[in-house]
Amino acid sequence: MAFNKKQRRAVRAGSVRVSIALSGRHRLGVFRSNKHIYAQLISPCGKAILASASSLDKSFKERSSVPSYSVAAASLVGTLIAERAVAIGVTSVAFDRSGYKYHGKVRALADAARSAGLVF
């Protein structure tokens, strides 16, 4: 049975989430659409979202005028989520790229989060 593109990504994401759940660390989850990018800081139990940032946030629009689908926007979202995570006292996280390739927007978000104080 052949899977389509979305199903293959979901399988990759699921296998990574199992190993992150077993580690007991906070999870930095990423979702990428064609127009926007979203990041969430999720508790170790997986039931609570501690912080979130996206290219739709009011603070994103106040800080930048770049298009929401660009790599620059992804790096700004990474900076926002890292600032919010450090503000609540979380510095060590596990990066969950949700089955997306680690390049382009996902990599820019991760690099910006690292440079803003998160460790993963």
Question: How would you characterize the overall build of this protein?
Answer:
By secondary structure, this protein is an alpha+beta fold. The protein is 44% helix and 19% strand. The protein has four helices and four strands. The protein has helices at 5-23, 58-63, 71-87, 105-115, and strands spanning 26-32, 37-42, 49-54, 93-96. Strands 3-2-1-4 form a four-stranded mixed beta sheet, sandwiched between helices. Strand 2 (37-42) and strand 3 (49-54) form a beta hairpin. Helix 3 runs parallel beside helix 4 (105-115). The longest helix is centred in the first third of the chain and has 19 residues, at 5-23. The protein is globular and about 45 Å long. The termini are far apart.
Strand order of the largest sheet: 3-2-1-4
Shape: globular
Q: Please compute the radius of gyration using only Cα atoms.
A: 14 Å
Order of helices and strands: HEEEHHEH
- What is the residue-averaged pLDDT? 94
Instruction: Work out the oligomeric state of the chains in this entry.
Output: single chain
The rounded distance between the terminal residues' Cα atoms is 36 Å
Helix percent reads 40-55%
Largest sheet: 4 strands, mixed
Structural class: alpha+beta
SS elements, strand count: 4
Total helix count?
4
Low-confidence stretches: none
The fraction of residues in strands falls at: 15-25%
What is the topological layout?
Blueprint: H1 5-23, E1 26-32, E2 37-42, E3 49-54, H2 58-63, H3 71-87, E4 93-96, H4 105-115
Parallel strand pairs: 1-4
Antiparallel strand pairs: 1-2, 2-3
Helix pairs in contact: 3-4
